[in-house]
Write a structure and sequence with these properties.
By secondary structure, the chain is α/β, with parallel strands linked by helices. It has two domains: about 10-75, Helix Hairpins, CATH 1.10.287.180; about 90-160, Transcription elongation factor, GreA/GreB, C-terminal domain (Chitinase A, domain 3), CATH 3.10.50. It contains four helices and seven strands. The strands form two sheets. A five-stranded mixed β-sheet has the order 5-4-3-7-6. Strands 1-2 form a two-stranded parallel sheet. Strand 4, helix 3 (about 110) and strand 5 form a beta-alpha-beta unit. Helix 1 (about 10-40) packs antiparallel against helix 2 (about 50-75).
Length: about 160
């Protein structure tokens, strides 16, 4: 049985993504289909780069629409948690990673969109390593390149969009 990936979204992020989906499914799709039709009317399709570019764009748009529909279908909607000093999904973390201080959001990039924070998935190596840690805790994790990276948590804050 396939495992379904549930993305945590705030109501604001869900509403924004729903509006994006509606725009992509109507206005954006219609514009590309019109460009395909116009390019088709120009004649020989084998050498018509405008036709092929528009078809490629339509394929990319359809893939985005499918992905977004799937995400929204399985989204878990809620509020970002009030910080209790523990790293959890929806919090802003200040940490020293491999000697450099970094401030980032743990959760989906869809929630952090429009903020100044980089977003790290709780399923990422960093996310998995720090979920549940408290201010002052340290750990290490294995990066995708195989390197061990030290991380120390210095602050956990409530995310304010």
């Amino acid at each position: 049985m396939a495992e379904t990936n549930h993305t945590f979204l705030t109501q604001e992020a869900f509403d924004r993504l729903t509006a994006d989906l509606e725009r992509m499914s109507t206005v954006d799709r219609d514009e590309i289909v019109a460009r395909i039709a116009q390019a088709r009317d120009e004649g020989d399709l084998k050498e018509n780069s405008g036709y092929h570019a528009a078809r490629d764009q339509l394929g990319l748009l359809e893939a985005k629409i499918r992905d977004l529909k799937e995400m929204l279908k399985h989204a878990q909607i809620g509020e970002v948690p009030e910080s209790s000093g523990v790293v959890e999904v929806g919090t802003v973390i200040t940490a020293t990673i491999a000697g450099d201080q970094s401030v980032f959001f743990i959760g989906s990039r869809e929630i952090a969109a429009g903020s100044d924070y980089d977003a790290y998935s709780p399923e990422s190596p960093l996310g998995q390593a720090i979920i549940g840690l408290k201010v002052g805790d340290s750990t290490s994790f294995t990066a995708p390149n195989g390197n061990q990276i030290q991380v120390s948590i210095s602050k956990v804050e409530t995310f304010v969009p």
